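Section 3.1 - Work completed
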Amino acid sequence: MNDFSKIIKNLSEYETKKIFDTFAKFNEYIETPPTITEFISNDYYLGKSLNNGKVIFPFWKKKLVQIFPTPFFESNKYKILLFSGSTGIGKTTISQIILLYDLARTLCLKSPQEKFRLPKSAKIYFMLSNSTLENAETINLDPIISFIRDSAFFRDKFSKDQRRNMFINNIDLGTISRKRSLVGKNVLAALSDEINVEVQKGGSKKLVIEMFNRINSRFILPGDKWPGHYCLISSATTESSLINSLIENKANKKDVLIISAPRYEVKKHLNVYSGEKFKIFIGNYQSDPFLINSEEELKRAEDLDPTKIYNVPIEHKQEFETDIYAGIRDVIGLAISDVRTFIPFKDKIRKSLSLTKLCLLDEVILSSDNERLINKFQKQLIDSFKPGSQKVIGIDVGISGDRLGIAMCHIHDQVKKERYNPESKDVDLLPEFIYWVDFAIGIKPPKGQQLPLYKIREFIYDLRDLGVNISYIVSDTFQSFDMIQMLQKQGFNALMNSVDRKKEAYYLYRNAIYEERVLQPFNKILYKELIYLQENEKKIDHPEAFPDGSIGSKDIADAVCNALYIASTKLKYNPYESKEFREQIIQSLNKDEDFAKKIFGENADGFESLGKYF
């Protein structure tokens, strides 16, 4: 059929129609389906609703011809059509037209049930799904019904008993919002809208996968083709995870067509652009997005990644100046980390991780033998924990149990910050803590073993025995309940506090990062967890997977966050403790020149190097 598509390109309209009529006659069609161009322009089909196709942008007309090279199912190239990218470009309308075209071609068959080897009594559905049933009906079904009522073709195909099904041959439209609504339904084609909303709520992927499996199990043509299409309307932020989920469930990449384009490309035929453009760097793991207004900024962007520089029509500049992230998402149509990211300012995160080498460990593989966690730390670093400041230890046992995050912090200093007073309606200067995170690491068991939680208790006992002033220990999961009880029996102030149930703790953590009031040791895992933290309606969460393919996590971030929160609510600032801590650090560094060099570089002087911290 692909060769057939190539042949007709060189034929006249009359010759092409003759071939189509002949093919339809011998392939179970009662009438020849229209071409996609005829379908959107001829009054008999959708021409009246679409002003004879004039309201369809040239960009979309080309895409429709790419999707439907001939009027017949056998020439289908794709199963899944994923509409992503910028807003206001007509994704929903085009998806509705595609669903209606699949419906029209099915209505041209003598017997769809016989064609697709279904029982004669089987009802065939064209399904519409959305985040809610109400949205499926008002956003998707109502416009489709309007198209149908304006089309003589569809009216001619109405069933005599529309209480049972809308069209002849037991064909009907359906709306759903939940997976269970699909049970027992023969879905030939479908449209799922507002997928990004559903993904954030956690319900979309199951529905999408079930819809895919429902079509794939009932409607397969020779050559592993579908007679219809599954249209997914998504934001760019959910595109990758949806595709990965579908591929895991037997979809091939070649079956998926991703349609995404900047708004100014889709609408360039409207002649609303002067041709003048401005440059923007859309951001990467090293830098936040920024407008390029000078040669210095252009040089910086080129050094960071020249492929992340975009030329955008000047008419959109105000949108980017108002909200650069919304502009990248809505105008350019790109997925960027901040669309759902909790802390979009990567520069601030990176700056907070300024204690570059105070902690030399990112993650420790801890077995259940005689190995002790305390021995993984540098002797000089352990010395720095001891006298002075009250410490809070945060522990997070991951839900999967395959990594534990542990961190320790204290109040390093205090600074006054401007805060709005709702009572006086004035801006007051109020004291805020500066936090010092002594260490933040991940703990993992050897492959195939369980995490030895008693080793964490041993580590805490060892810290206490070395003189570390541990004021509080906090954990946030039921999995550590027994450990908390055991620590309490040993005389520790151990408590439970969930950073998942309320967002307050993470808001405090984020504000401290924004205002440069937290100093943390550099940890590659913690950095990745922080830059990809996501906020949804219920909590601060992590993605299912990081862009590098590793499993998403926030175990170390949770441990730090909980420790900071308890420090902010339970501890008081003591200038003497802070001074003693500083003097102790300086003494440790001056005693060991090699350790100072490890932390601050080969030319480090222990006392002078601390100037930027104290």
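Second construct:
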Amino acid sequence: MRTTIPKQNNTAEYKDGSAKSAFFSTASASRSSFVIGGLFAAAVCVLFALPWWNRFLAVTNEGWHFFFGHQIANGKIPYRDFYLFVPPLLQLEMAATIKLFGDRLLASQIVGLFEIAILAVALYSWMARLFPPKYAFFGAVSSILLCMANRTEALNALHLPGMFYAILAGTVATLSVDTEQTRTSFAFVGGILAGLAFLAKQTSGMAALFGLLFALGIVTIWLHGALKAAKVLLTFSLGWSLPLIAVGGWLASQGALRDAFSDLFVKGTSSKGSPLQMVFRIFWMTWEDPYLLRYFLLAVFIVAGFLILFRKQLESPSSGQVENNNQVYLVALLFAATILLGWGISFYPRVYLPGMLVHLPDSSAAFLGWVGSFSLFVTYLWWLITGRLRRDQAQHFMLAGFSFAMAFMNSLSWPTNPIVIVPAFGFVVVSILTAVRNAPAGKSLQLIIEIGCLVCILQVTFQKCASPYEWGGWSEPGVHAATVTVKYPELRGYRLSAQTAQFLTRVTDEIDSHSTEHDPIFVFPDLPIFYLISHRQPETFGYVHYIDVAPDFVDVADANTLISHPPAVIVYLKSSEEDLRMGEVNFRSGKRSGQRDLVAAISAIRPKYELLDSFVAPGSNKTVEILARK
């Protein structure tokens, strides 16, 4: 049945034509379809994960944060007893999961499935408050799926919590202001969620904090005056401070607060390079990489064309009536069918995509989100300054500012960091779809955009199932090859490929045969999964020595530890000179890194060791050496 909400029955208007009540705009869903649309969005996002979430092991990344959580659950304190490169919320969550369910890595991934569902509901609900529900579904779900499709992590590693709490904070905090009133309770809860975002990942946390403070402050002053703005901002800040006080108090009681501050915001940030290198990373890396440059130019072309051709529609959107809410259900079915089709195509190993197309959907989405959210934010800000921004566009302004803050801050690590996509790409897509709907040839343009989104989802579904992980010198075969279970209780519930299972068994058996559970070992550079399944402790202060998370002072100190206290066993995934140099160019401005100190330390103590095994790791072109102390 067609559901419409006539404008005159729902709102009054200001002189500029803006709706007085903006809690649900005239283009948004009714409350019932609002909830149902969110549940459909959650179902589609979970469906996307089901074919692969427990059918691969991201060997060079899996278990990083779970092992940190394991250490916390067993009484060790981050920053004091081991080096941790991010705030501790995710690791504390995993410690709690371990306390409840034991050392089962799968439990943390089940938590990830629930978080994905909640994230989908939150992002859809935020966009459906401002845009027609059909377009909100396209924007929210497409951005989440393209982010999930990244092949550099497991489902619940750092990317998911890095956007989860920040998106929840934005969804709730922006409800604190509309054209009629302010609601400090929403500001308070949004502040708490922004505080949790700050404790999950530095960049996303800073985006949520400063992006929301700026957007809420500007909009509240504009709509309600400075006094109410001060009240909203103070309430938000109070909520933000509570999680930090709780976690900071715990760290202080354990003598780790000073080290935590230094590792997170002073010395530890050097692993990403200098401040200037981080701020301008998206520009210089894009300029030097022809593939990234193509994606960037494509995004600039799309955004510039949109603003030139459809600026009037963006400035004065047609009010009209609500879209048929039943279309949301049809779109959800189209997304589900597309995901199932992509999964089905992955059964055919002969399907091959050229190199440039492999990263076209996610890289284009990242740049389109970054460029588009920046352009729309600047456009709305200019309209606000010049008095042309409609009062009922205040929420659009806040979403644009928040989207760009998230995109910019998360591009400090890497230009196409998957978190850049959410919510920026979704916001840009839904803005374009809404603006062109009443333009000449608008329906044709909408159809092209919607088909483009579905084609991208088809491709990334196929890719995620055909090759679910490729990062750090390791790639996993398709999920259909994942038919083997392993004996390690920590990996119960996983289905792995034969080659991955054999690799785990081969290395762990050597560790077990040449050390006891009381003997520390060393795994280099980023294979802490072996600490977990072999039940061995690391010899070094740092557990992960990948170049963009381990600063040089940690590498140098750990190199000295290896020389003074040679571990019982060393598992060494060897890096080439080209690998070392590339890391130094990307994260050390071309300067020598502490990685070389660790490599030199292994070479220096090598005469004390027997070579147990040496082989090329499956799914990798790198050699693994297993050394046992004589």
